[in-house]
Specification:
This protein is α/β, with parallel strands linked by helices. The protein has ten helices and 17 strands.
Length: 349
């Protein structure tokens, strides 16, 4: 009897998914004939061409943000939606289809370099009017997609076709020009602040996606829920020190998206908060060295931060194109600084 109970509990547990974003129950994956990596299509697979308006949706993970998908659908002209991922199922298909009028929704499971370099896979991506990068593990995206036709197709959508592109959690992590790979495991804020050169801090510089206006940006996600502010600051410190570049940060908490239009103007959609972090070349970290806690003080004014509370309709405005502080509205300004590996903050007066 006890053995039977264990078997039943294991079977129930095995139906759960731990991927961020749309919940996926484990099921048999059926690939669509003649469409390599396709694991599900709803709608018409015949290609359509609709007028699109560019934009980037940086989603913070957790529960999906319906309004952010509707924002992308509105910019797609009702064309074809393609979801790409390296693990999981096609659970996004019916979810997205129910949110607005689109020609089709298709999920591609691109979990090998062979598939990522397949001409048909690249063709399907290039003909999308919305591309959405699901959650999962961004190191798999880097491992499978870097230097392939899939990557070329994504960058084509971002910079030539100007299709709306979104990503949640791991999918959002790779949207910035700088990105944290997490390839050897995820680092906590305390660990990163305690040693910005910890082996888990792997940050890359503009060798993957090339989204408009995000060349000097590194994103982070699950921001407040997983208390990631400190590790985001550590990433900024490393970029400043290693490349002598003064980067920006964009971060969204769960259930929240930073939606940036084709002109680089962003609003915050969802139920939690988003943050825009700005570094200054005249305010470098005082201590950013291997094995030592980060100190980035500059008289308590090391990093200027704009906090925006999201709403379902979209709240606030931030100029990502120029990071023009005078154009920011709907939020609050803060100063963040780090003393001996401890992040501190104060609202600007």
């Amino acid at each position: 009897m006890r053995l039977l109970l264990i078997i039943i509990l294991f079977a129930a547990f095995s139906t759960l998914s731990f991927a961020s974003g749309k919940a996926d129950t484990i099921k048999t994956i059926k690939h669509i004939a003649g469409r390599p990596s396709s694991i599900g299509v709803i709608g018409d697979t015949a290609n359509v061409n609709t007028p699109v308006k560019g934009g980037i949706a940086m989603v913070g993970g957790g529960k999906d943000v319906d309004a952010a998908f509707k924002w992308m659908i509105d910019r797609s002209g009702g064309g074809d939606v393609v979801v790409i991922r390296a693990s999981g199922t096609d659970a996004y298909n019916p979810y997205i289809k129910a949110l607005g009028k689109v020609n089709s929704v298709e999920t591609l499971l691109i979990n090998s370099r062979e598939l990522a370099d397949n001409d048909t896979v690249a063709y399907i991506i290039r003909n999308a009017e919305i591309l959405f990068i699901a959650g999962g593990d961004q190191s798999n995206y880097m491992k499978f997609w870097k230097g392939t036709k899939t990557l070329d197709a994504i960058n084509y959508l971002l910079n030539i076709k100007h299709t709306p592109v979104g990503g949640t959690s791991a999918g959002c992590a790779i949207l910035g020009g700088f990105y944290y790979s997490g390839e050897d495991g995820s680092i906590t804020a305390d660990e990163a602040l305690g040693n910005p050169y910890d082996n888990l801090v792997k940050v890359y510089n503009n060798d993957f996606l090339h989204a408009p206006y995000l060349k000097q940006v590194i994103t982070d996600q699950h921001y407040l829920t997983r208390k990631r502010q400190g590790r985001h600051v550590a990433f900024l410190g490393r970029i400043s020190k290693d490349w002598n570049i003064f980067p920006k940060g964009i971060a969204a908490d769960e259930r929240t998206a930073v939606c940036m239009d084709a002109n680089g103007q962003a609003t915050v959609i969802g139920t939690s908060k988003a943050y825009f972090l700005i570094t200054d070349g005249k305010k470098l970290p005082e201590t950013c060295e291997p094995g030592k806690p980060l100190t980035w003080n500059n008289n308590h004014q090391a990093i200027k931060v704009y906090e925006v509370q999201g709403t379902i309709e979209g709240n606030g405005s931030f100029d990502v194109a120029e990071f023009d502080l005078k154009k920011a509205s709907g939020g609050k300004w803060f100063w963040w600084w780090v003393e001996g590996g401890v992040l501190k903050q104060e609202e600007e007066r």
